[in-house]
Amino acid sequence: MAAVPAPAAAPLNEKNVLPIDTITTPLPPAIDVTRPPPQRTNAVFDTLLATYHSFQDRRKALGLSNPGTVDNISAEVQRSVFLTNQTFSGLRAELNKSFSIYPLFQISHAFSSGSQLLSPYTFLALYGTNNILCQAQLDSDASFSARFNGRLNPRLIFKSSVQIQPQSGMSPGGAQVSLEQDYTGDDFTASLKSINPSVLEGGLTGMFIGSYLQAVTPRLSLGLEGVYQRPGGGMGPEAAVSYAGRYKGDDWIASAQLLTQGGLQGSYWRKLTDKVETGVDVNLQFAGGANAMMGGPSREGSATLGAKYEFARSIFRAQVDSKGKIGCLLDKVIAPPVRVTFAGEMDHVKNAAKLGLAVSIEASGEELMEQQDKITPAMPPF
């Protein structure tokens, strides 16, 4: 009987060949090389470590940014819109000279007349790099002030300042030393400041201020500030705590600070147009208020409203408060090196008025103009 031949193998073609991707084996899960899996030690430690990593992942997913410091929580109102530390009286002339932009080196001569707060002559010198800032100021009445700031690393900045005031008929004189450390995180800022610290009177004396501001959401930041003061002469220590909050909208910012001793300060800033800003500040003191550490109760309140207008070559600021004061300041650039500033203030309650006029000249040579096109300017840690 003849053998039955075996069936011939079907020829290979595109219909009976399995695709390559259908026979691949599943890949193992990807490993985060930036955070290798920790070695197991004990159940409690592993649970805490896993919780910490989970919290950090959720924290990064929020996309939070650094909120700044508690001291600058209302900087848009106090430093940009209001006339704080900008108004003056009498006549003033300034001559500023810049020698280089990296390292930054500048000197300034200021002459004043008709002012009870400004010295007749002031000399100022400034030197700075990306990591160091040195500044010194000497007045004709022998008043001296200096500060030194250093950026220890991209997140930690050390600040120090010294002020020496001689005794005169209007001032008892004195000296003050301030030391400050600021740590800037991705979404928080921690600061520690000490004023006149000393251990020469049988213990630690001086004033110590610690603050912490944390971004909770992309718009909301919360923080607190603690003050501990221990004067010399056997006086007992005093302490105070304040809570701070800041909310940032699309074109407005609201901030508030609450003192546990009975003080409340609120600020509101809004950008009306590209060149117009406005701000309002309300300060309430009750049940001891902000003067509780000074020993005297105070119950009072004040409100200030201000506006800022930016023109092509000038800036105009104006403000009015609930105590009857009206002030304005006009800063105008006459020519690129010449700037004129006019300041005025009227107090209706005290029936007093102040006027101020200042001229500032920026002197810079052709070499400095060439440096601006070739060298990146220094960014000192102010």
Automatic annotation (TrEMBL):
The keyword Transport applies. Pfam families: Porin_3. CDD domains: Porin3_Tom40 (cd07305). GO terms for biological process: protein import into mitochondrial matrix. It is found in: Mitochondrion outer membrane. One of its GO terms (molecular function) is protein transmembrane transporter activity. It is a multi-pass membrane protein. InterPro entries: Porin_dom_sf, Porin_Euk/Tom40, Tom40. GO terms for cellular component: mitochondrial outer membrane. Keywords: Membrane, Mitochondrion, Mitochondrion outer membrane, Protein transport, Transmembrane, Transmembrane beta strand, Transport. The keyword Transport applies. Belongs to the Tom40 family. This is Mitochondrial import receptor subunit TOM40.
